[in-house]
From TrEMBL:
Domain of life where this protein originates: Bacteria
The keyword 4Fe-4S is assigned to this record: no
Principal EC category: transferase
Protein name per UniProt: Class I SAM-dependent methyltransferase
GO BP, sorted A to Z: methylation
Signal peptide: none
Keyword Oxidoreductase: no
Enzyme Commission numbers on file: 2.1.1.-
A molecular function (GO) term: methyltransferase activity
Length: 211
């Protein structure tokens, strides 16, 4: 069985198969993931992302992102400095936080690949509709938490796994760039591993605070 890309456990089992690929689940952290053989290559992955038409001028997209921006923003001190990780081709969440008085850095491996922003310190980091795309979520999330100052916040937005029956009918698995699927149990496992607190303020939204 493939090794879990989040916790590196070899204790995984088959979870589901559709017409295109297989999905496995980890007994340790509960992550559901796509084995490496079914992942897209970089050019194929980029081609899917190039189809996205997100923009700060799209009020609907702003309302979508506000589900994370509002509960996280309530916890931030004035002028708190943030990083939007996986900003995509049309950075918008960073614009919203800058409008609220928070200086922002952005990073995206395809559209803003400036590694220098990944060596600073931040009061908060956001990753909206990002973690489901990560081939190595354990490594990437550990890197992000390492960039947080004491009492800093990590805000994540992703749809959550509920049960196997719902998973088989879930539109979220139809996106070929989605390869890691988190549940509430997975996020609680991460909080324990990191020694962080975790909150679920809204559907699909998770907030971690560094102790």
């Amino acid at each position: 069985m493939p090794t879990c890309p989040l916790c590196a456990s070899g204790d995984t089992h088959f979870y589901h198969r559709d017409r295109r690929r297989e999905y496995h689940q980890c007994h340790c952290c509960s992550l559901v993931f796509v084995p490496p053989v079914f992942r897209l290559g970089p050019e194929e992955e980029r081609a899917v992302y190039d189809l996205h038409e997100n923009s700060p001028d799209d009020e609907g997209y702003r309302r979508f992102l506000a589900r994370l921006a509002e509960p996280l923003g309530e916890k931030l001190a004035p002028g708190a400095r943030g990083l939007d990780f996986g900003a995509g081709p049309g950075p918008t969440l960073s614009v919203m936080f800058e409008e609220a008085g928070h200086p922002m850095a952005i990073y995206d491996p395809f559209y803003a690949p400036d590694d220098t922003v990944l060596v600073g310190e931040y009061d908060f980091i956001t990753a909206t509709e990002v973690v489901e795309h990560l081939f190595a979520p354990g490594r990437e999330l550990a890197r992000l938490t390492g960039l947080l100052r004491a009492a800093g916040w990590l805000g994540v937005m992703t749809k959550r796994v509920t049960d196997r029956e719902a998973f088989t009918r879930w539109h979220y698995i139809l996106d070929p760039t989605h390869v890691a699927f988190f549940s509430e149990a997975t996020f609680c496992w991460l909080a324990d591993e990191w020694g962080m607190t975790v909150e679920f303020p809204a559907a699909d939204v998770v907030l971690f605070q560094k102790n």
